[in-house]
């Protein structure tokens, strides 16, 4: 029996092609997906990576082998696949490795209505079937194999997003958009077409070899070109999308990055204006600005662990209207609780265009604290170092400690979270305080214990 433990992750399938997986395995994943979900029909899409069309078609054929009718939507962003799953009411599969290098590919799977498929919601069973079938061979085709049908959903996806945010009356804006040769180059022109926004396009050519820079806007080096172009053109805003265009990172008119926590707070305030008294989900690494802004606008903040499965579970449980993460993932009830960077970008463009000031001034109300960013430390004994940090702070005056996700230590003036990586021998530290000097002091104190 094959061992797919390195290929099947907590929330998706991801690995190197063809070293770790290929079209033969993709076909088995398609069959197993139908077997586990019991789907009579599925929707399948893919990004611009060289291996994506072949893998996507193989998965579709495997699904059809088990009797499912397959709607192939071809090139799409991940949130466009979620739209198709929600709009058509079908389980879906998206072929992408997001921001990973060109030799990688993967599958993000969901049930009808874009409900995520992870280890606890079907992915473990899918893996077990595929592992068994690699040894015994695929099951015999069913009596009535399913059909394969092509369908373009881009215009419907764009129309849905624009129905949720009205940009027709905003002042004219100049926006530099860096698609990183990813799927933003496919979706942005259609979504923004006809709006009072002059788009300066960077790297809109679909190219899964990423010739200009990695399509990962969380890494500062991948924002350099966008920052320079914003300054050079005198643009009002810069937007950077990752490879599958489900995350969006924002740059202000000075070329400075805007914290995803500030974007979360801004969008939360706008969503609460539409849905008074609503619940907003945020993970525990987002700034304390987020729950403060939510409460100020009459909403109910709910704090969760890091990870999209936890966000989506809490959104479903609480009926939340919106959720945001420090990693620039933004989730909307109006989008089947799925994440869409494009919808968050439309909210920011609308907020900017509805008033006369620059973006840096607009976001100041939502960006109230100094932060360290994530700092990684390689350690041999993660539990031991975590325990040492807890011992150093627990019981201190005005100190609260919780272990919802790693270790969070909070005082009236600062807080930090220390979490272990699931895949590497790392501890990840985030510190926030009222000023940069306090951030530096707390950061150095905690790192001295972590790295002792």
Automatic annotation (TrEMBL):
Cofactor list: Mg(2+)
Pfam family, one: PGM_PMM_II
Gene3D superfamilies: Alpha-D-Glucose-1,6-Bisphosphate, subunit A, domain 3, Alpha-D-phosphohexomutase, C-terminal domain
Chaperone recorded as keyword: no
Keywords of this entry: Isomerase, Magnesium, Metal-binding, Phosphoprotein
GO terms under biological process: carbohydrate metabolic process
Span of domain Alpha-D-phosphohexomutase alpha/beta/alpha: 6-132, 156-255, 263-369
All residue ranges annotated as the Alpha-D-phosphohexomutase C-terminal domain in the record: 374-448
InterPro entries: A-D-PHexomutase_a/b/a-I (IPR005844), A-D-PHexomutase_a/b/a-I/II/III (IPR016055), A-D-PHexomutase_a/b/a-II (IPR005845), A-D-PHexomutase_a/b/a-III (IPR005846), A-D-PHexomutase_C (IPR005843), A-D-PHexomutase_C_sf (IPR036900), Alpha-D-phosphohexomutase_SF (IPR005841)
Gene Ontology MF terms: intramolecular phosphotransferase activity; metal ion binding
Sequence similarity: Belongs to the phosphohexose mutase family.
Name of the protein: Phosphomannomutase
């Amino acid at each position: 029996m094959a061992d797919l433990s390195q290929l099947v992750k907590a929330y998706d399938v991801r690995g190197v092609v063809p070293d770790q997986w290929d079209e033969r395995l993709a076909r088995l994943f398609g069959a197993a997906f139908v077997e586990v979900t019991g789907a009579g029909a599925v929707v399948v899409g893919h990004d611009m990576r060289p291996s994506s069309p072949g893998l996507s078609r193989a998965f579709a054929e495997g699904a059809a082998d088990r009797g499912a009718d397959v709607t192939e939507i071809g090139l799409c962003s991940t949130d466009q696949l979620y739209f198709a799953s929600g709009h058509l009411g079908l389980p879906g599969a998206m072929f992408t490795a997001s921001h990973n290098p060109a030799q990688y590919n993967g599958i993000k799977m969901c049930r009808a209505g874009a409900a995520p498929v992870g280890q606890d919601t079907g992915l473990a069973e899918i893996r077990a079937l595929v592992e068994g079938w690699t040894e015994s061979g695929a099951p015999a085709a069913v009596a009535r194999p399913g059909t394969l049908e092509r369908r373009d959903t881009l215009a419907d996806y764009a129309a849905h997003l624009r129905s949720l945010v009205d940009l027709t009356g905003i002042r004219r804006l100049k926006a530099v958009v860096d698609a990183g040769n990813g799927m933003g180059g496919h979706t942005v022109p259609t979504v923004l077409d006809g709006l009072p926004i002059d788009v300066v396009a960077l790297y809109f050519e679909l190219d899964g070899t990423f010739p200009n820079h990695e399509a990962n806007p969380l890494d500062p080096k991948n924002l350099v070109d966008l920052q320079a172009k914003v300054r050079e053109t005198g643009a009002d805003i810069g937007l950077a999308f990752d490879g599958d265009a489900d995350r969006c990172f924002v740059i202000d008119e000075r070329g400075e990055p805007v914290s995803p926590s500030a974007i979360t707070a801004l969008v939360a305030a706008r969503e609460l204006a539409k849905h008074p008294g609503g619940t907003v989900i945020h993970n525990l690494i987002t700034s304390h600005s987020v729950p403060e802004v939510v409460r100020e606008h009459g909403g109910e903040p709910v704090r969760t662990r890091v990870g999209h499965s936890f966000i989506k579970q809490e959104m479903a449980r609480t009926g939340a209207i919106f959720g945001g993460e420090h990693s620039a993932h933004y989730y909307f009830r109006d989008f089947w609780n799925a994440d869409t960077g494009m919808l968050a970008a439309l909210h920011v463009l609308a907020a900017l265009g509805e008033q006369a000031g620059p973006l840096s001034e607009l976001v100041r109300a939502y960006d109230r604290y100094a932060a360290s960013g994530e700092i990684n430390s390689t350690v041999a004994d993660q539990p031991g170092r975590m325990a040492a940090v807890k011992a150093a702070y627990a019981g201190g005056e005005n100190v609260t400690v919780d272990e919802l996700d790693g270790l969070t230590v909070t005082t009236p003036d600062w807080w930090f979270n220390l979490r272990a990586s699931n895949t590497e021998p790392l501890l990840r530290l985030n510190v926030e305080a009222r000023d940069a000097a306090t951030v530096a002091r707390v950061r150095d104190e905690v790192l001295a214990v972590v790295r002792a």
